[in-house]
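[Q] Does anyone have a clean structure-token version of this?
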Amino acid sequence: MARRTKAEAEETKNRILGAAEKLFFEHGVTQTSLERIAEEAAVTRGAIYWHFADKIELFQAMHQRIRLPQEDIILNASTAGHPDPLRFLEDVAIDCMRTLASDARMQRVYTILLMRCEYVGDMALALRRQKEADREMRSHIAKLFHMAHAKQPLAPSWTPETAARVFGAMMHGLWTDWLIFGKEFDLIDVSIRSITELFASMKNSSATSQYSTSH
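[A] Here you go.
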């Protein structure tokens, strides 16, 4: 009985999240009330408060449902290390774009984050928390670039910190442009070309030659 009750509670929670995602996408976050979400999900407003303290917590839970699996792969690699960090990041970046291009829910939620939400008032807290999460992820990516640099120096024009910043900006820019401008280009093709060229520019050809000669 307890297991069934727990399963029912989880089903209700997912129904609320699905309703919020649908209404946020159609009407925007500001214009969507908890009452409207409750009506869409066919639950009481009290049921929403049972699972979520407020709209911000509901909004963040919706966002967390579309966490990229590659994020955990990056966290694990930055902790345990990797024999070829530069190649690892290049492959993970392309894999991320393939995932984003094929996942309709991720596309809807990121459209909400980018174009359906005003980060003012109470929602400013959601933006601050997202910035904190982004900084943490960038620190893990920078750590991997430092690992790569220690194994084989990056090209002279690159530092690990700059590489991490440019890498993040390019990934965000490709994904954002694709969504904002109506998916008017082939995300996977353009991403593969851009990511490949970016990482090629980071490789130190003279260091590679010296490494090959010495081995």
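[Q] Thanks! Anything notable?
[A] The chain has two domains: 1-62, 66-203.
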